[in-house]
Automatic annotation (TrEMBL):
Signal sequence extent: 1-21
Residue ranges of every copy of the EF-hand domain listed in the record: 32-52, 81-102
PROSITE patterns reported in the protein's UniProt record: EF_HAND_1 (PS00018)
Native source organism of the sequence: Roseibium salinum
Protein name: EF-hand domain-containing protein
Cross-referenced InterPro entries: EF-hand-dom_pair, EF_Hand_1_Ca_BS, EF_hand_dom
Length: 117
């Protein structure tokens, strides 16, 4: 679980609009290797979504199916949280979370081939 959280921290800091808003770093090869479930040298959209779904579950400390700022304060700034909270209710649902991280995947997929390498 610690490995999952560490990679989630990096992925979230590179994502949630940061890739464009703050020119965050690209995902490092070592992080891709941890997400690359089939060891083919790239991270497919499916692998990324599976990993981020697991990350959501790990971040949801009380298991209520939503993230609040206190649960993600170590990995998201208030601005990142607000960007992910699409309906501005102060909570990030699994759907909001996945919508944002998959949007970040699409932005990072420079080759538009459904793979991060």
């Amino acid at each position: 679980m610690q490995k999952t959280l560490l990679v989630a921290v990096f992925v979230l800091s590179a994502g949630t609009g940061l890739a464009t808003a703050q020119q965050g770093p690209a995902i490092h090869e070592g992080h891709l290797n941890q997400i690359d479930a089939n060891n083919d040298g790239g991270v497919s959209q499916g692998e990324y979504q599976s990993f981020m779904t697991e990350s959501f579950t790990s971040l949801d400390q009380n298991g209520d199916g939503v993230l609040v700022e206190g649960e993600v304060a170590k990995v998201l700034t208030p601005e990142q949280f607000a960007t992910t909270d699409a309906n501005t209710d102060g909570r990030v649902s699994r759907n909001e979370f996945l919508r944002q991280v998959m949007s970040d995947f699409a932005t990072a997929d420079k080759g538009q081939d459904g793979q991060l390498k």
